[in-house]
Amino acid sequence: MEIEQDFAQRVVVITGAAGGIGRATARLMAARGAWLVLADADEYAVDRLADELGGISSGVLATHHDAADATSTAALIALAASVDQRIDVIVPSAGIYPESGLEETTDELWSRVLTINLDGVFHLLRDASPYLTAGSSIVTVASVAGHRGSARHAHYAASKAGVLSLTRSLAWELGPRRIRVNAVSPGLIETPMTEQLMATRGEAAIAATPLGRFGKPEEVAAVIAFLASDAAGFITGEHVHVNGGWFMAG
Ligand SMILES: NC(=O)c1ccc[n+]([C@@H]2O[C@H](COP(=O)([O-])OP(=O)(O)OC[C@H]3O[C@@H](n4cnc5c(N)ncnc54)[C@H](O)[C@@H]3O)[C@@H](O)[C@H]2O)c1
To answer: Could you say which of 38, 84, 129, 154 has the lowest number of CB atoms within 10 Å?
Structure first.
């Protein structure tokens, strides 16, 4: 049995597409023939990415999206559904990672992180559900923080633990429809999100990592593409760590 990892004419929705991991995933999926619906709060950046990938004549759409706004997410799904009345792959990669200790975390900041990182994923997947068919695949983007916590990022770690639990719950619920739901859990990856952390605590993080470096967004994208593809056809409800050995479960 030969199993393909290509995405020819599959409708792939990526949020946070202008970010480091979303962008690498979009490039890889485009190279494998996907029809892409790219969404990001940074409209200018996501438009430029779509242009780079050939634009509408290559089956690449770009749209502004605010993951904190359920109406914006509904509009994104309506756009994706307009391509071919179905959605084959969803990668919710939009996220924020502000630093704040427990006592300085306001209600507003707590809510903002949970709203974008967790509620946004729920809204996206709920609204996409009617368009998912047998063989469709969801790959959420969690984090090592969702497994072991993260000092001064309790809101972020809680949101990512929520994403992991949402992922497993939907794997149970959507499995009978032959829809797979998995997560990737990146460690420290070189993207705009981690620039500040790298500058302040980069050396310590590298020293704690068996492979002795940060990860590249392309190394996360490769795992996302694998999990989304038919090559992972019997994998659901799982998470794959991509962290250079930084977190090893005993
Ligand atoms: N970089 C890492 O080390 C790392 C580690 C673990 C998990 N992650 C997760 O990977 C995902 C992608 O992160 P990244 O490293 O590519 O970060 P990034 O900052 O490069 O990209 C995040 C993207 O999300 C977009 N975004 C932010 N708020 C949004 C909103 N309200 N609505 C829509 N889009 C919004 C940003 O414009 C940006 O393009 C995130 O969910 C992040 O939590 C990253």
So the answer is: 84
pLDDT tens sequence across 108-141:
999 999 999 999 999 999 999 999 999 999 999 9
Separation CA 142–CA 37 (nearest Å): 21
- The secondary structure of residue 189, as a DSSP letter, is B
42 lines ligand 1 (CB under 6 A): yes
**Cβ 191 vs Cβ 244: under 8 Å:** no
Residue 184 domain boundaries? 11-241
Q: What is the pLDDT of residues 60-69, one digit of tens each?
A: 999 999 999 9
Asked if residue 249 belongs to a domain, the reply is: no
156 flagged as catalytic: yes
Residue 51 CA to ligand 1 centre (angstroms): 21
- Computed over every residue of the chain, the mean pLDDT equals 97
CATH number at residue 142: 3.40.50.720
The Å distance, Cα 193 to ligand 1 centre, comes to 6
Task: Tell me the H-state helices in 53-193.
Answer: 70-84, 107-114, 120-128, 145-148, 154-174
Tokens standing for 79? 């756009």
Residue 4: inside a domain: no
Question: Ligand 1 within 6 A of 146 CB?
Answer: no
pTM, two decimals, is 0.98
CA distances from 215 to 37, 63, 144, 167, 231 (A): 26, 28, 13, 23, 23
